[in-house]
């Protein structure tokens, strides 16, 4: 059973965003795709990825009254213990994806470090055409370079993170995240090389994220997870094998965090599929490991490595 003392509850809910945001305990509400109807509110954020199938809203609820506002380019909300923050950086205004990323990270880090909740636990990043370009000119590698430059060593320990490619042609980088008054414990997967130790073949700046982050109330914030073992992608063009390898990585991470190789059933999962036709196959793995009040959604998005077909992230709750 989920512990009652969880201070932040993330879930999928159906309803009208405006009405949900009337709740004084709502830290953030996320809609997915162009069809999401969201009001002008600092706590409301439209993710630029189209849902495959049902598209409930993602709602972050906390146990205390929430305050919110905008500080320059940063939208934010906080209950004093947790902080939601978000920024959107137009690539054209900053000379490309690398400089837009550096600007976004520099701005967010300055804001979070000056707050009462200075510990960044989790980040989500969405950018258009993530695999476009060759070699070190690939947009994902340029994003990584911009992130390294913008963070300038300030994001240590590394937070959990997801980076996914949008398909809408909108060259606006979206970054949002969760910070807290109390720091978390980074968790690494023994089946995988820590991302910041990736060899040069993956770009001039290695990705800087933890595989997971264990919060003060024992929730595991799971980074984007795919069919990577060691540092190599496995099972090119084999969706079923990639799904099974991804599942093995999720189980391994949960075992490292909780000391047992089980995923539980009250988890909140999100899958990103390169081909929307793969959604049903991917949903099967999440159905096996989520029960109410958990759940899952599937979004159409490109994975950071062109050979990967699916990525899964989410939140594991203590059982």
Please sum up the structure shown.
With 319 residues, this protein is an alpha+beta fold.
Task: Describe the model.
The protein is α+β, with helices and mostly antiparallel strands. The protein has a single domain (8-316), classed as RutC-like (60s Ribosomal Protein L30, Chain: A). It is built from six helices and 19 strands. Strands 4-18-17-19-14-13-12 form a seven-stranded mixed beta sheet, covered by helices on one side. The chain has a six-stranded mixed beta sheet with strand order 6-7-8-11-9-10. The model has no long low-confidence stretch (mean pLDDT 94).
Low-pLDDT segments: none
Q: How many DSSP helices?
A: 6
Termini gap? 5 Å
Coarse structural class: alpha+beta
Please give the structural blueprint.
Blueprint: E1 8-13, H1 17-20, E2 26-32, E3 44-47, E4 50-51, E5 57-62, E6 67-71, E7 74-78, E8 82-90, H2 91-94, H3 97-113, E9 119-128, H4 139-151, E10 160-166, E11 172-180, E12 185-187, E13 212-214, E14 220-225, E15 228-229, E16 232-233, H5 239-258, E17 268-273, H6 279-287, E18 295-300, E19 310-316
Parallel strand pairs: 2-3, 9-10, 17-18
Antiparallel strand pairs: 1-5, 2-5, 4-18, 6-7, 7-8, 8-11, 9-11, 12-13, 13-14, 14-19, 15-16, 17-19
Helix pairs in contact: 3-4
Name a few traits of the molecule:
319 residues; alpha+beta; 60s Ribosomal Protein L30, Chain: A; six-stranded mixed beta sheet
């Amino acid at each position: 059973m989920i512990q009652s003392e969880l201070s932040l509850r993330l879930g999928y809910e159906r309803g009208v965003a405006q009405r949900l945001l009337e709740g004084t305990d709502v830290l953030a509400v996320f809609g997915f795709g162009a069809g999401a109807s969201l009001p002008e509110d600092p706590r409301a954020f439209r993710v630029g990825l189209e849902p495959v199938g049902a598209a409930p809203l993602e709602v972050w609820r906390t146990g205390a009254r929430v305050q919110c506002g905008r500080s320059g380019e940063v939208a934010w909300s906080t209950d004093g213990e947790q902080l939601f923050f978000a920024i959107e950086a137009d690539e054209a205004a900053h000379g490309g994806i690398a400089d837009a990323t550096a600007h976004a990270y520099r701005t967010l880090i300055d804001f979070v470090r000056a707050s009462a909740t200075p510990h960044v636990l989790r980040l989500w990043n969405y950018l258009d055409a993530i695999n476009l370009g060759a070699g070190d000119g690939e947009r994902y590698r340029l994003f990584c370079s911009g992130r390294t430059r913008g963070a300038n060593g300030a994001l240590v320990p590394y937070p959990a993170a997801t980076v996914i490619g949008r398909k809408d042609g909108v060259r606006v980088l979206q970054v949002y995240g969760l910070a807290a008054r109390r720091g978390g414990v980074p968790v690494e997967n023994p089946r995988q090389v820590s991302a910041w130790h990736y060899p040069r073949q993956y770009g001039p700046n290695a990705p800087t994220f933890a595989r997971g982050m264990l919060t003060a109330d024992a929730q595991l914030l799971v980074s984007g997870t795919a069919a990577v073992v060691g540092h190599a992608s496995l099972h090119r063009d084999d969706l079923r094998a990639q799904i099974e390898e991804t599942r093995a990585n999720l189980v391994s991470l949960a075992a490292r965090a909780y000391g047992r190789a089980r995923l539980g059933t009250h988890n909140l999962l999100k899958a990103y599929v390169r081909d929307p036709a793969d959604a049903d196959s991917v949903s099967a793995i999440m159905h096996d490991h989520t029960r109410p009040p958990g759940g899952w959604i599937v979004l159409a998005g490109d994975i950071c490595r062109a050979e990967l077909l699916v990525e899964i992230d989410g939140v594991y709750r203590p059982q």
